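Protocol step 4 of 6: structure prediction from sequence.
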Amino acid sequence: MSDTPTYIYKLVAHTSPVPLDPADLPPALPISDIDQSSGFIHLSTASQIRGTLVHFFTSDPHVFVLRLPYEPLARLPGQIKWENPERNVCGPRPGEGLFPHLYNGFKLGKDEVESVWKLERGEGGWEVVVESDGPFKAWLVY
């Protein structure tokens, strides 16, 4: 990976509420079924969020987007691996590149998360929400 991101993001389904204040997060959030079965925590860069929403959160009225500073996670060797998405899980995702995956024993909580955004799906779907200029787009760091 030649361009090191400032932040990477974890999307959490509306069925797993996340406190909006990172200080209120537990040391480790519950692990999603897909993360558990994969053996790592699935993450996205800012430019990959749209595709992740469209492929995995089609029926969610809202999701929680967790912003994680990249550098502290990348300092420990082997914690972040940049890997291709599995086609059998999400189909082809051309142009999205490698995805960051967190291999740290499923620890994702108040020590890793800098901020949380509750993202509401609009009438036009996730594409409209993510692509429109507004506070969420300003919050994302590309």
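Step 5 (inspection) to follow. Residues 7-139 form a domain with the ADP-ribosylation fold fold (CATH 3.20.170.20).
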